[in-house]
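User: I'm curious whether this sequence folds into something compact or stays loose and floppy. Could you predict its structure so I can see for myself?
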Amino acid sequence: MSGRVKDFFLATSSLDRAKPIPLSLQLYEEVRNAIISGRFRAGTRLPSTRVLASDLRISRNTVVSAFEQLASEGYVKGNVGSGTRVTDALPDEFLWVRTQRNGKQETRKPARPPSRRAENVLDLAKFYPVVKPVPFRHGLPALDEFPRKLWAEIATRRWRQLPSKALGYGASAGYEPLRRAIASYLAVSRSVQCQPEQVVMVTGSQQALYLATQLLIDPDDPAWIEDPGYLGARSTLLAAGARLIPVPVDSEGINVSQGLRANPKPKLIYVSPSNQYPLTITMSLARRIELLECAHRSGAWIIEDDYDSEFRYHSRPVAALKGLGHSSQIIYIGTFSKLLIPALRLGFVVAPPSLVDAFNALSALISRHPPYIEQVVLADFINEGHLGRHIRRMRSLYFERQNYFCDMAMRKLGDLIELKQAEAGTHLIGWLPRGAEDQAIARKAAEAGVETKPLSSYYLDPPNRGGLVLGYAAFNKAETDTGMQKLASVLRAILRPSGARS
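Assistant: Here's the prediction. I'll summarize afterward.
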């Protein structure tokens, strides 16, 4: 074996017949990586396909296939009489990490830094980690209770009936029968009167927030935001360049008078009035009217985030803010992530008539249109009455799970945490003793296999007292028992260390 062939053999000796990846593709990737990393330099002559096939004990056709792919992508070129050589111009040269002689790696720095918006987005990406549903992850419905069989039956029926032309691109606003169904549903359940043309389908409430803030906010525009408040709203406002005005939340909801003292002329006001996130407070009627009058006087837009108001346990869901008045200034946002499952990735915006075209245009620019088949199935799911029945069943289940959660917390946690039932929603706030650091407790709980979100992370202005956001809706009794035991151990270790006086 010649020195050149030996070096090549060593660089490509990791071919593994046990892998499901074809040998030709393995050889292609090995040679490609060797070229890009600089092990095979420009002009290096590759061994002949016959010699390499013999040395690697693979068929010549396998080597030929790999070399042909490398040649088609521009990594090697073959010349009559001089064999196959590494090309002088590498396609990925400016995209790959290059290995230096000292063994260290460096990445090519961009010629110019990214925009400030890009820096904001990167910094805020930590708000959206991919997580497993472990106790007590909040914001999750009961995934195991989703009617999969029924959904599959509707989907199968629809696939059989679907004409070929429906497999192309759809309308950016969404599937029209679904928009009609949502408009009818909102009129009955939320007292929101709107035309189907005002309903714009999106891939969840987060996209709805992004569209709204991009359309309504210019850099440095003042925006009221609930404090504490939803991190997803905070991040999209920051990404749009808004100047955040934190407005405290009290027992009646966002404190309008304090907001006016902080900034009397906001460009936008973000609220979750039916079930304030994360404090689970329902905005009082007097406060709603005060907020609407404030927005009317100042000309501010209102984003009403109505993410899970259907799950109210002691009365009918309260009417939406958009159903009370001045609706031409209110952008209403809803999602099926909480009503059904997050994986569905469907939500909607009810836009004022003056903004419908802008919402449709920006939505088309970002994602062309939401998933079509899911919209078709969801329209049938609503029109056939399945959504209403599912919500009623989940409301009963979640109320039962909240009661069990509170009972177990009283038994396992005792006075380590202050917890009381909520009128609505799928999570509770566990208030910690004053002086306790909820960030540290949440980290220790995560190490123990329990997810709790520190309440202080939702505040812009430091809170007087820490707490934990605890989700209960997604977990059965056995999961709640296990999670509660782990959380109790963490709290006792931190709040009642060995030898400390009780």
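Summary: Residues 386-412 form the longest helix (27 residues). The CA atoms of residues 247 and 258 lie 7 Å apart.
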